[in-house]
Design a protein that fits this description.
Chains A, B: Keywords: Cytoplasm, DNA-binding, NAD, Repressor, Transcription, Transcription regulation. The structure is a homodimer of 213-residue chains. Chain A is 45% helix and 17% strand. Chain A is an alpha/beta fold and 213 residues long. In chain A, the strands form 2 sheets. A 7-stranded mixed beta sheet of chain A has the order 5-6-4-3-7-8-9. In chain A, strands 1-2 form a two-stranded antiparallel ribbon. In chain A, helix 5 links the parallel strand 3 and strand 4. Chains A and B meet through helix 1, helix 5 and helix 8 of A and helix 1, helix 5 and helix 8 of B.
């Protein structure tokens, strides 16, 4: 049985893991919640509370063992293993995703890519040959895939998500600018720079109206 | 004076605005919080509570006026105007960002791009000529820029963020895989697909261990 851990806590753990990996790479062996908090602009209390969901870490007044906590977080998050990822949509954005160098070193291997455009099918991107989208279901029946990345136009995105879900994929990273629907047992994350910018313009506008002469 | 509105609320408003724009495009004139909630997988109560920070919208039992609420949200968020964006880092990722077709229609115009690589400087990307990074500060003194997009390698990212902040930029969209630091009066959003995937593997792993035979 697992305690119900808030999703915001789960979302922060990879950030902690990345900071600990940086510290380990610099040869640091111990870090206080204070110092970790300063690295990440969060309070030490929040770090301690987030970690408390998973047991007891660190000794009062002595900080956390960097390697020990990193290993534990990697195990909790499952980022100590290799994950098989398929990419659907190999337009300009999909190509950039396929060729992004940041996934492989973190254990995320793009094992297949799919597109409907005959000009793209058969091309090499990021080390895989683009397959036709009609082969998606058969591929997913025959091969283990853990995560689906959706980089198709907005109008196609929900139907691609549905196909991934029906094929048993439990985690979807959606780059299309829609709120895609998934069943409760499927996790989805949206990557949407426009929404991110739109949430910042509120603050720009407010600072102008309060600060301007 | 502005009420202190939680950041999570501000972050949801662009999602509401996008759904309302979709409804308007389909010719819908009225929407209930129930129907809007179903579109977005949030509860009607949350929608009503989020909107209540900004005044009274909709009439009890009659739903929201789609065009009216959309116009109001666009005004609140400042997405009813044009925003000037500069891009720093025009490697593979930066090129994909510069050529992404989704920013312009939403009022985000990339007005300048910068890189340190002499092979890239002088090239055209997304309608602008890439300038040398050494010209960043002079450019920002001479031209209004509202938002800076950072797409440089992790090792360079904090120093680029600092330069943007020192030049008076109040909003930064960071694609580099670091937790960049900014002063309190600057807003920053991180776009990080690796962290998003790492937060999903927790759930995949958990469902395997609870659901597997």
């Amino acid at each position: 049985m697992t305690l119900e851990i808030p999703e915001v806590v789960i979302n922060r753990l990879p950030v902690y893991a990345r900071a600990l990996a940086d510290l380990a790479a610099r040869g640091e062996t111990v870090v206080s919640s204070q110092a970790l908090g300063e690295m990440l602009d969060v309070t030490p209390a929040q770090i301690r509370k987030d970690l408390s969901y998973f047991g007891r870490f660190g000794k009062q007044g002595r900080g956390y063992n960097v390697q020990g906590l990193l290993a534990k977080l990697r195990e909790i998050l499952g980022i100590d293993r290799q994950w098989r990822v398929c990419l659907v949509g190999v337009g300009r954005l999909g190509q950039a995703i396929a060729e992004y160098g940041g996934f492989g070193p973190q254990g995320f291997q793009i094992v297949a890519a799919f597109d409907a455009n005959p000009d793209v099918v058969g091309k090499q991107v990021g080390g895989v040959t683009v397959r036709h989208i009609d082969d998606l279901d058969a591929y997913l029946r025959a091969n283990r895939v853990d995560i689906g990345i959706v980089a198709v136009p907005a109008s196609e995105a929900q139907s691609v998500v549905d196909r991934l879900v029906n094929a048993g994929i439990k985690a979807i990273l959606n780059y299309a600018p829609i709120t895609a629907h998934v069943p409760r047992d499927v996790t989805i994350r949206h990557i949407d720079p426009v929404l991110a910018m739109q949430s910042m313009t509120f603050y720009i506008k407010r600072s102008e109206s309060s600060g301007a002469k």
